[in-house]
Amino acid sequence: MADESKQTLLDRDQAHLIHPLHNKQTHAAHGHVWVKGEGAILTDADGKEYIDALSGLWNVVAGHGRTEIVEAAAKQMQILPYVSGYAGSTNRPAIELAEKINELTYPNITRFFFTSGGGESSDSCFKTARYYWKLRGKPDKTKVISRQWGYHGVTLAAMSATGISGYWPMFEPRVPGFIHIPSPYPYRYEALPGVSQGIAAANELEQAILREGADTVGMFFAEPIQGAGGVIVPQDDYWPRIREICDQYDVLLVTDEVITGFGRTGKMFGLEHWGVQPDMIQFAKAVTSGYFPLGGIGISDAIAATLDSGEAVWMHAYTYSAHPVGCAVALRNLEIIVAEDFPTQAAEKGEYLLKNLRAALADHPHVGEIRGKGLMTAIELVRDKATKEEFPAEDNMGAKLHLETQKRGLFSRLRGDVFCIAPPVISSREILDRIVEIMSDSVRALFGER
Fold first, then answer.
1. d(Cα 383, Cα 53) in Å, to the nearest integer?
2. Which of 93, 265, 339, 423 could form a Cys-Cys staple with 327, CB 3.0–4.6 A?
3. Which residues pair with 181 in a beta bridge?
């Protein structure tokens, strides 16, 4: 019923829905029933408007309510709503989308497999790497090295690669063969004297490869900029050194571009900032701006040639791989991203947002760091600014800050006491100014300062 109260809708929700990251108490106390999205604004069932400060889940880069994307979906649904993408079948939108991504991404990444999202893409990377090394006569190269604070999804294998330990205990034992090294985390990584922080953090990979044995390590799997783990932007010498290490020990460099792909960082893809090319990528989220569940992986010419040499059927498949409607939505969305130059928009707006957040909050005694790249930013709260001491986990300072921002009309997500901010790329300067105002007022309200 259109006139149902928000509480009635929440009660119905509680009766029948299980949520991602389900917690009945939190949802009952602070739940939202989103009923409308327009641009960078979400509307709750009680009529209150909120800035969508994380673009949904980092994905709605083009903003809500883009009728041209909706029309592309409707048109394709009328023509061909679904067809299998299994070998022996294809469709025009899938072909055209592969060609378009080939134009946009790293020059050596030329072949693509489509999935329904990031978690499926992670598993597709693991399985592709394993098969590749078997064809190369190195079947023991199965191990995956990833990083603390990395987020790669929550299928059992993707969760095992994810370096946020809170995702593990309920579902252990994890899949064997996944190893984690420290994040480069410039705010917190401690390097020994005489070596740069970035090189030292990259060398953690070499040390892990040597500990495990290079003949057992198949791939290094990492986000160019860590997103859900707290917007961790690596040092400028980090990724070039990582590429050297992977080449030296014959390890595939696989980048998770689910958040960093298609413009959000100020480049079309994340590693472009450091002039490095990966051997394999995965993507999702911004490829459709969230209007349809779609993801995928891209592989280099060298990997593709090896897979093509195999005589057996590649036993990996999803029902919705190369979904024609999803591919049509992605194509129209990518046209918008290119036509409206999202990388440049993200670079300029991100610089503006970061500068103003720092001007408003950098001197606050409980704001440890304000960081970002493009329209990926984060505010890290600390108990002691001088020592970088964190608040006790039970204090829930990040969650308390989010309650304050919601009072003022801003909704986002956080990692502990790190508040993430990544609004749609189409966000106006007025929206960015309002984000700064809300964050400033909320931090001061949280700590009792006027």
1. 25
2. 93
3. 147
Find the DSSP H helices in 369-428: 397-407
3-state SS, 71-125, equals HHHHHHHHHCCCCCCCCCCCCHHHHHHHHHHHHHCCCCEEEEEEECCHHHHHHHH
Please report which helix (H) or strand (E) contains residue 442, including its range. Answer: helix 429-446
Which of 300, 303, 258 has its CA nearest to residue 120? 258
Catalogue all structural domains in the chain, each as residue range(s) with its CATH number. 32-53+341-446 (3.90.1150.10), 68-339 (3.40.640.10)
Mean confidence (pLDDT) of the chain = 96
The answer to whether 446 and 401 are in contact (CB under 8 A) is: yes
Question: How is residue 284 written in tokens?
Answer: 């999702």
Neighbours of 125 (CB within 10 A): 28
Instruction: Return the number of other C-beta atoms located less than 10 Å from residue 380's C-beta.
Output: 23
pTM above 0.90, yes or no: yes
Residue 324, CB half-sphere, CA atoms under 13 Å: how many? 16
Q: Are the CB atoms for 13 and 1 separated by under 8 Å?
A: no
Q: Which of 209, 239, 241, 245 is nearest to 224 (CA)?
A: 239
Instruction: Indicate the SS3 state at residue 241.
Output: helix
- What values do phi and psi take at 232, rounded to 5? -100, 110
Tally of CB atoms within 10 A around 358 = 18
Query: 80-93: buried (b, 16+ CB within 10 Å) or exposed (e) per residue?
Result: eeeeebeeeeebeb
Strand pairing report for 41-44 and 34-38: antiparallel
Q: Which residues pair with 295 in a beta bridge?
A: 115
Per residue in 328-368, pLDDT tens? 999 999 999 999 999 999 999 999 999 999 999 999 999 99
Q: How far apart are CA 355 and CA 177, in angstroms?
A: 42
Beta-carbon contacts of residue 136 (< 8 Å; ≥ 6 apart): 306
Could you read off the pLDDT of 145-172 as tens digits, one per residue? Answer: 999 999 999 999 999 999 999 999 999 9
- State the pLDDT at residue 159: 97
The count of residues in the chain is 450
Distances in Å between the alpha carbon of 136 and those of 84, 112, 276? 30, 20, 24
User: Three-state DSSP class for 351?
Assistant: helix
